[in-house]
Design a protein that fits this description.
Order of helices and strands: EEEHEEHEHHHHEHEHEEHH
Helix content: 25-40%
CATH superfamily: P-loop containing nucleotide triphosphate hydrolases
Oligomer: single chain
Shape: globular
Strand order of the largest sheet: 6-7-8-3-9-10
Structural class: alpha/beta
CATH architecture: 3-Layer(aba) Sandwich
Amino acid sequence: MLKLQNVSTFYDKIQALRSVDVTVKEGTIVTILGANGAGKTTMMNTIAGLLKPKEGSIHYLGKDVTGLRPDQLLRKGLALVPEGRGILASMTVLENLEMGAYHRNDDEVNTDLEKAMDRFPILRERQSQLGGTLSGGQQQMLAIARVIMSKPKLLLLDEPSMGLAPLIVADIFKIIKEINEAGTTVLLVEQNARQALKVADYGYVLETGKVVASGNAKELLQDDTIKKAYLGH
């Protein structure tokens, strides 16, 4: 579904990604692990079209999409929940959800809105509340639900558990698994390596902008080097 080949991205003269190769197969959950500053968010923003790679190519559904704008990629079914969630704070929960479907003109928007409310009952309860007044966990659920309203084929999630209480984190990962099982491919950037590897099929480890390890998620979970660096063992 997604293939990065030799992708390098710069901030002015500072290189943030170094010849990155990543493959995401359709129907899977793939996680990107790494410390702060490893280049994880840069990679997600490059895939989503917010940054343009200086070298390399990005193929999505078999077509070269390198350099396409975020709105063009969204219309093709590639959507990002950014780090920090990006909630429209002065708009209601319902308005945020409707914004997720702004580019759609099909007859199923209201049906999908009901499905989103069913999946996240708290959003139905709070639909008239301003997005900025929700708790962190509720904002994360709203951010995910809003993106689901765009009907993505590939969902990019950047640090969905950041700053959340452990019980809420467990809920978020359960929802990620459900979204995947319902047919959406997921690329997940996550500092909570243990949780990420538990739900993922495959994983990559980024260090200083380079892929230094990759493999089956269950194998990475048992890898002594990974355990020591990312799992607190």
